[in-house]
Write a structure and sequence with these properties.
With about 180 residues, the chain is of the alpha+beta class. It is about 45% helix and about 20% strand. It has 4 helices and 8 strands. The strands form 2 sheets. A 5-stranded antiparallel sheet has the order 1-2-3-4-8, covered by helices on one side. β6 and β7 form a beta hairpin. α1 runs antiparallel to α2 and α2 runs antiparallel to α4. The longest helix is centred in the first third of the chain and has 24 residues. The chain is elongated, with a radius of gyration of 21 Å. The chain starts with 9 loop residues before the first strand and ends in a 6-residue tail after the last helix. The model has no long low-confidence stretch (mean pLDDT about 85).
Length: about 180
């Protein structure tokens, strides 16, 4: 899945807190692997690493990866594992409920978890998500009509990393004799 590369304007929304959580998980992983090397052996760190990397992968997929990218031609909504590329002519409405939602002309709704969510503060009238929705509306208003379809697909690099971690974990289990209970 590839977005438009010849767009004059481009804006991306992503939650900064997701990257903070990913940085904390990565730092914890490095510290725990360093401890395994210092107190044990480097081979022990190899056996423990896939489990810690799986945790980092999960934090990345759930919190850091989701994003919303708008170009002149289309809106790209990335969840943890899936990517939806939506031509502007297929967007019926952009609304901010608890999170940004993109209503399509076929009646489906795409939830954009990468954009800001609604805050429940009583005294706060301005919401970052409302600004993001307004920005996307400007893109939609100035978009050229097109009859391109909505494209949905998997984010292949993320799945390949998961496959690598799973293979590493399987090797780790085979070396240690499997999961030990009791």
């Amino acid at each position: 899945m590839s977005g438009s590369s010849d767009s004059e304007y481009r804006v991306s929304f992503r939650r900064p807190s997701g990257w903070v959580a990913f940085a904390c998980a990565s730092l914890l992983t490095v510290l725990l692997l360093g401890d395994a090397v210092l107190r044990g052996r480097p081979f022990d760190a190899l056996l423990v690493a896939p489990w810690l990397l799986a945790l980092c992968w999960g934090v990345y997929v759930l919190l850091a990866a989701p994003s919303v990218t708008a170009t002149d031609d289309l809106l790209r909504v990335r969840g943890g594992l899936r990517v939806v590329e939506i031509p502007w002519s297929r967007v019926r409405a952009i609304r901010m409920r608890w999170q940004l939602e993109i209503a399509l002309d076929d009646g489906t709704v795409v939830a954009a978890t990468g954009a800001a969510s609604r805050h429940l503060h009583i005294n706060r009238r301005e919401q970052p998500g409302d600004d993001q929705a307004a920005t996307l509306e400007l893109f939609r208003e100035r978009a050229r009509p097109t009859d391109l379809p909505v494209r949905r697909g998997w984010h292949i690099p993320t799945l390949l990393i998961l496959a690598g971690i799973a293979a590493w974990a399987a090797w780790s289990l085979s070396v240690t004799g499997g999961i030990v209970t009791g």
